[in-house]
Amino acid sequence: MNRFLASALTAVSIVAAAPLFAQQADTQPAAVQAGNYAIDSSHTLVRFTVDHFGISEFYGTFPGASGTLSLDPKNLASAKLDVSVPVAKVSTTNKTLDGELAGPEWFDAAKYPVMRFVSTKVVRTGDRTADVFGNLTMHGVTHPVVLKAVFKAGAVNPLNKTYTIGFNATGVIKRTAFGVSKYAPLVSDDTTIAITAAFEKQAD
């Protein structure tokens, strides 16, 4: 196949697919469809950041989250969030470290396979922001945590035709409070949590 023909076929495929992605996601929270949602695990990620010996910041991720969200934009205070994260899936740039983090000296995934956050209260703080209060259970210990959430947008996913909404959220925990104290404070006790989450609307 010559370059001209290949370029022409590529252009045709892009034009044909254009209507699929032509929709504009709605960033207005008032437009969100009320109802029950489930996490889209493939497009949700939990990231943690610690200070590494005062030299650099170090990041890790937890893929594979699952959970539910009940949401009515007209009554945000009634929202309920319940999210579970599989600890054994912890991932960094170092496979050896991944195994250590999942092991008994850190998260101890064999004994405590899941981290879970269950909301207790949601307070609107701005047009697209809210504080989500809840209880985080990690490493067999439960403590209250506040996540600062930002609504990203809502739209029908053009691939699976499911109405989906997205949020970003951040929070800070002290890992030693949950019994994860290896190398503290050389590796910082304060641990920043950053979450990007997609939720798919469930059938009524």
From TrEMBL:
Residue span, Lipid/polyisoprenoid-binding YceI-like domain: 36-200
Signal sequence range: 1-22
Origin species: Novosphingobium beihaiensis
Protein name: YceI family protein
Lineage: Bacteria, Pseudomonadati, Pseudomonadota, Alphaproteobacteria, Sphingomonadales
Keywords on record: Signal
Keyword Ribonucleoprotein included in the entry's annotation: no
